[in-house]
Design brief:
This protein has a five-stranded parallel sheet, with helices on both faces. Helices cover 40% and strands 20% of the residues. α2 runs parallel beside α3. The protein starts with a strand and ends with a helix.
Length: 120
């Protein structure tokens, strides 16, 4: 079982992901923005991975900003990015070292496989 911090600004998707992560046997911490993510990241609660949408409306750099700040606070935190946009070199060039990508839409099985790659 892993603790996954899920950052997604679409409330429906966030709530759905919380259920899917739990169904996969993991604990989900959720946030809809950078402030909420930082609240979790600065707490003493263990976090095994960050799952973040690249496109977060309230941030110029979206999920990249969340991931960069997360790594600043927890340098060994693995990051899984997601987006409905097709992955480009420009996108991967902004990933934190070791960051992985999961294309939307994805199945629970694909999410579990990606989580497994991060928290082996």
């Amino acid at each position: 079982m892993a603790v996954i911090l899920v950052v997604e600004d679409d409330l429906f998707i966030l709530q759905s992901l919380e259920l899917v992560v739990a169904d996969l046997g993991h604990d989900a911490l959720t946030a809809s923005d950078l402030t909420g993510a930082l609240r979790h990241l600065t707490s003493p609660h263990p976090i095994d991975a960050l799952f973040v949408d690249i496109r977060l409306a309230a941030l110029a750099l979206g999920g990249y900003d969340v991931a960069n700040q997360a790594i600043g606070l927890r340098p060994d935190l693995p990051v899984l990015y997601t987006s409905g946009s097709t992955l480009t070199d420009d996108m991967t060039g902004r990933f934190v070292p070791g960051g992985l990508f999961l294309q939307k839409p994805y199945s629970p099985a694909q999410l579990e496989l990606s989580i497994g790659k991060l928290v082996h």
